[in-house]
Amino acid sequence: MDGTEDIAGQPGPAERSHRSSVSSVGARAPDVLVYLADDTVVPLAAENLPSLSAHELHRAIREVLQLPDVAMDIFALWLVSPLLDEPSLQFRRNVFFPKRRELQIHDEEVLRLLYEEAKGNVLAARYPCDMEDCEALGALVCRVQLGPFRPGQPTACTLREQLDSFLPAHLCRRGHRLFAALRGRGAKAGASEQGLLNAYRKVQEVAGGDCELEASLRTHYHAYLRKCHELPYYGCAFFHGEVDKPAQGFLHRGGRKPVTVAISLEGVHVIDNREKHVLLGLRFQELSWDHTSPEEEESVLWLEFDGDHEGTPVNKLLKVYSKQAELMSSLIEYCIELNQASEPDAPQDSGTGPSSAPGSSPPPSQRPQLQRQGSVVCSRIQHLSTIDYVEEGEQIKRVKPKRTTSFFSRQLSAGHGSYTVVRPAESLEQS
Questions:
Q1: What is the mean pLDDT of the chain?
Q2: Residue 62: in which H helix or E strand, if any?
Q3: Amino acid 346: pLDDT
Q4: Low complexity compositional bias: what residue ranges (predicted)?
């Protein structure tokens, strides 16, 4: 989109400039383009761009969007680039903003921006979700975009035409395109659209039919965010990396798989980019970490955690290759420092405050255990190649890796593996 064009659905240009000489664009070409979570652009003009501070730019964006002062804590400016080249400036959720405070927000535009960002992460599978959770979230998107559910409209076949607007793309894929084309409009609806339609039918409306549309949308924005709060990686920062694959086959070939490392105030999650599920999820009290940046080798983030090897307690080391290893290490350290600094105030936040209202997310130590054992948010340590070791006196004894496959290709599949966590009361298989 050209920077001089008006932005559909956004407030008009501000009537006056800031003291920092930053203003919304009028007739002149923009000096700064700031992207929002819904891919719209806020063009800004600056008199002295090299001396412009991030605080002044943040204030200019809030004024153009007419956001309340609390938005200063909720949102941050991000420089984002997949290839660390020509980064775009984005106005996104602040990773250090506590989830419990989101449910206290009532400004519709702030809620809409948070909703759009969360929706984008769900649809792009950056937030892996189980099918039934995707359907529940997709139903709320249907409600926001299509209005209240009305029997007979839309139908499952109608939803199929725009299914990727409501569900992640990998859940919308069909078989061969020719076969899909032969199905035609009159074909029986698939499980995805039928499940979405059933969930859409169950979306509850605000009590009292005369409520304003804005109040109704706020309710559904809140419902979407509250559902996302159940995901352990909600509100995290994403980093690119690779991990070693377990050795397979007769020649014990391994290789690497691309992963996303998600870091939030609660912990670290390593997500399989291809399979769209969690490989490892650790809260900060469950890990030790470090990073190395050799001059002639790749930068590595090391994650150490407790595990077992054939019933024997061992320490496990996961090696994450990434150019962003130092950034990840620094963010982990800062998140831990923030948590430690806020611990004395934690008891004051509990009780009768808004954070303990029905439907709000429980604190990490009180998370309910997942009922779905095959959930995408459960760790799959058996899919990782880790270095296992035990301490014997002052020496470290490395445990030989167990062969993960038979010499013969035809065999009875043992299904998904399992693992024993070190702390039974604080299982890794928690949301």
A1: 76
A2: helix 54-65
A3: 44
A4: 350-359
188 or 98: which carries more pLDDT confidence? 98
Q: What's the token pair of residue 152?
A: 């007979």
The rounded distance, in Å, linking the Cα atoms of 195 and 127 is 20
Residue with tokens 């920092």: 20
Task: Give the pairing of strands 256-263 and 237-244.
Answer: antiparallel
Token pair for 22: 């930053």
For 351-382, write each residue's pLDDT tens digit: 333 344 333 444 444 343 334 557 898 999 88
pLDDT tens-place string over residues 216-259:
899 999 999 999 999 999 999 999 999 999 887 666 677 899 99
State residue 310's pLDDT score: 77
**How far is 421 from 222, CA to CA, in rounded Å?**
34
Residue 243's alpha-carbon distances to 271, 274, 279, 318, 419, in angstroms, are 10, 13, 10, 8, 19
Task: Identify the bridge partners of residue 88 per DSSP, sorted by sequence position.
Answer: 80
- 368: number of Cβ within 10 Å: 9
Distance CA 251, CA 359 (A): 52
The residues pairing with 231 across neighbouring beta strands, listed in sequence order, are: none
Token representation of residue 301 = 């983030």
Name the token pair of 179: 């076969």
pTM of the model: 0.76
Q: Residue 97, CB half-sphere, CA atoms under 13 Å: how many?
A: 19
Q: Where are the beta strands (DSSP E) in 138-226?
A: none
Q: Classify the C-alpha dihedral 141-147-148-150 as positive or negative.
A: negative
Give the per-residue pLDDT at 381: 87
Instruction: Report residue 150 CA to chain centroid gap.
Output: 32
> What is residue 63's predicted lDDT score, i.e. its pLDDT?
94
CA distance 118 to 28: 34
User: Which residues are within 8 A (CB) of 380 and not within 5 positions of it... i.e. 6 or more apart?
Assistant: 272, 277, 278, 279, 280, 416
User: 207 vs 357, which has greater pLDDT?
Assistant: 207
Looking up tokens 């024993």 gives 420
Q: Domains plus CATH for the chain?
A: 22-94 (3.10.20), 108-228 (1.20.80.10), 237-343+368-406+413-426 (2.30.29.30)
Buried b (16+ CB within 10 A) or exposed e, 327-342: bbbebbeebeeeeeee
The tens digit of pLDDT for each residue in 116-172 reads: 999 999 999 999 999 999 999 999 999 999 999 888 777 778 888 889 999 999 888
Question: What does the DSSP 8-state code read for residue 385?
Answer: -
DSSP assignments along 69-100, one per residue: TTHHHHEEEEEE-TTSSSPEEEEEE-TTS-HH
Contact between 310 and 417 under an 8 Å Cβ cutoff? The reply is no
